[in-house]
Design goal:
19% helix; single chain; 11 helices; nine-stranded mixed beta sheet; four-stranded antiparallel beta sheet; alpha+beta
Length: 637
């Protein structure tokens, strides 16, 4: 993402005497050596990549709305046509995302402060944001009505914990009204019926259990669709022009399928023909003539076009292999989406629904580097301790450039109900292409994308460490790889992956050179007590209930903080001061505990960041610090 504005931002970092680089003011670094200018110069091309996330279409001029970064944070931009310039629309210090009204007359934007995730909703006028919500609660934009008159959203305004349901004409904030008062933090309005008198609403209780309701907008009455007592997962639901309710559901299957849902009986009829893999996203053409949906096929996104009448399905074959998201159909029928792959930063694409021809709308810069040299990963599958099959993606450095056995970094995703898919590795390509470090991204049990059976066997405190043992099975298999140096393995991860980072360092520390744990859970009890109230119940389903004495004792038993005496390898801990998910106190307590026992810890705190760093100046400094950490640990002889 190399631009004049970005060049200015880099200059703003400045230089100190003796060849060191100045730390951004919002970062607090403890134990981290000075960053040499030579490292900044060597890595610069890898820092200047850019992405474009498709946000939707403008009905007024058929332009595309994307989120991309020219300066320090992602902002909204308009793209008039394929491969045309990105015209910046918002100019905020914090990241901004949003969407056009179906009328094409107004943009509703979403922004928080400092990564707090207490998002506010705004309208965009002449480059400035006009506040629609209260400025304090957490607000989530769910959808537009089909006539473009209303937005449906959820808000914790009432008590800070429950996500009540609201509607508003964003052109007149005085029209804002609470339609339904609910209990729980997983509520959202998914779609309005064509008559704008009814909406379909979801209440997500866990990744494997969610309930759908019909909401009467006049009375506020919520009528359940089907039996809420059943453990069924719904991903999305939308009304077609003829009133048919379409949804993704795992009812009667291990994966999310696309089908029709009868609001009266709750009967789900699967229509998508694939026997496995999740349908992750879908949209319905305004005239109801087709449905576009994306399928997560072992981590690779496939886009398909369904004829609702004949049930015929056609596959889009011209898209590059990669991860697909943000599928949305324009009023005139063009399908828009975002795609990222190992050799392509995230970019916006369009598909003609008749011919299935693919048109690329943006081509993001990669710092002057040729993305085609980036290595494609290979799938690694192993049997874990209990014969459960687990898999991951291994990226190997160029053997000609880096002969001999190579060090390995195991990078564990968060969630835990998430999944690593082969996307653009951005700064991490520096490890592969310039340092010769192999990277392995595991999908341990509990990962999504492999069916509801696979996503659940890590639930609760008694099963939590089984996913840690999965990493042990990977370490065993990778240690036998003739191209990898088993004496130079290390681990990193963020959020739940940060917990895994600590846990792996404790259980397998003798086989590792260091651990870089980011926004990480260190004590499950204090985490559950201090995570934001709107998400606490959802996390209790996954990890356990700290209010129950037996579960509390077990949660403490498996917490990394309890076994801090076993953290014998060097640590680098990164956290966000405004993190609503994993509070900064989780980092504070383990840093203090490790140091009290004489352990080695580098720490980096972003006072203006949340659950992971989002501002480019901070992310760059974090990356340079991490490179130094790996040079002193993983790459040391």
């Amino acid at each position: 993402m190399k631009t004049p504005l970005l060049a200015f931002a880099i200059l703003a970092i400045g230089s100190l005497a003796h060849g060191a680089v100045e730390k951004p003011a919002a970062l607090v670094a403890d134990g981290i050596p000075a960053i040499p200018e030579e490292l900044v110069a060597a890595t610069r091309p890898y820092m200047e990549f850019r992405t474009a996330t498709f946000m939707g279409w403008s009905p007024s001029d058929k332009s595309m709305l994307v989120a991309t970064r020219f300066g320090n944070t992602a902002q909204l931009h308009r793209v008039a046509g394929p491969m045309m310039a990105r015209t910046q629309l918002t100019f905020e210090a914090e990241p901004v995302f949003g969407s056009w009204s179906p009328r094409g007359d107004v943009v509703v934007a979403r922004k928080d402060v400092g990564g707090s995730e207490f998002f506010q909703l705004y309208t965009l006028q002449s480059g400035q944001l006009r506040l629609l919500t209260d400025g304090r609660s957490r607000n989530a934009h769910g959808c537009w009505s089909k006539d473009g008159r209303l937005i449906g959203y959820s808000s914790t305004w009432r008590n800070g914990a429950d996500s009540d349901l609201y509607v508003m004409d964003p052109r007149d904030p005085a029209t804002d009204r609470r339609v339904a008062q609910v209990s729980g933090g997983g509520w959202q309005i998914l779609d309005f019926a064509s008559n704008t008198r009814t909406a379909v609403v979801i209440n997500q209780l866990s990744i494997t259990n969610s309930d759908l309701y019909l909401l009467d907008l006049a009375s506020g009455k919520l009528s359940p669709i089907g039996n809420p007592e059943k453990d069924i997962a719904y991903g999305a639901a939308r009304f077609a022009a003829d009133g048919t309710l379409w949804a993704t559901s795992d009812e009667g299957a291990d994966f999310l399928r696309l089908g029709t849902l009868d609001p009266a009986s709750g009967r789900f009829t699967a229509v998508s023909p694939e026997p496995r893999w999740d349908v992750e996203d879908f949209d319905i053409a305004d005239d109801g003539s087709f449905i576009a949906y994306s399928l997560n096929e072992a981590g690779v996104g496939r886009v398909k076009v369904l004829d609702p009448k004949t049930r015929a399905v056609r596959t889009v074959t011209a898209l590059p292999a990669g991860s697909v998201g943000s599928v949305h159909i324009a009023p005139w029928g063009t399908i828009g989406l975002t795609l990222s792959s190992a050799r392509s930063a995230g970019d916006a694409y369009a598909i003609d629904p008749q011919t299935l021809a693919v048109t690329r709308w943006t081509q993001s810069e990669t710092g002057g580097l040729d993305p085609n040299v980036n290595v494609e990963p290979e799938l690694v599958e192993v049997a874990s301790f209990d014969e459960e099959k687990v898999s991951g993606f291994l990226y190997r450095p160029d053997a000609k450039k880096f002969p001999g056995k190579r060090p390995l970094l195991v990078n564990i995703h968060g969630g835990p109900e998430s999944q690593f898919t082969p996307v653009f590795l951005s700064r991490s390509n520096y490890y592969l292409n310039e340092l010769g470090i192999a990277i392995f991204f595991p999908n341990v049990r509990g990962s999504s994308g492999f069916g509801k059976r696979f996503v659940s066997p890590d639930n609760g405190p008694d099963k939590r460490e089984d996913s840690v043992k999965d990493i042990g099975a990977f370490l065993d298999a990778l240690a036998k790889d003739d191209a990898l140096d088993a004496s130079r393995f290390a681990v990193t991860g963020g959020s739940y992956g940060g917990y895994m980072c600590y846990a792996v360092a404790i259980r397998y520390g003798a086989r590792l050179k260091g651990a870089n744990c980011v926004v990480a859970i260190s004590n499950f009890v204090t985490f559950l007590e201090n995570t934001q109230s709107y998400r606490r119940d959802l996390r209790r389903v996954e990890y356990g209930d700290e209010r129950d004495p037996k579960q509390r004792a077990r949660l403490l038993e498996i917490s990394p903080l309890t076994h801090v005496d076993k953290l014998s390898i060097p640590l680098f801990i990164v956290t966000g001061g405004n993190d609503p998910r994993v509070p900064a106190s989780e980092a504070d307590q383990i840093i203090q505990a490790v140091r009290s026992k004489g352990g080695s810890v580098w720490s980096l705190l972003g006072t203006d960041e949340g659950h992971g760093f989002a501002k480019k100046a901070n992310v760059d400094y974090q990356f340079w610090s991490t490179v130094l950490f790996w040079k002193q640990t993983l790459l040391s002889e």
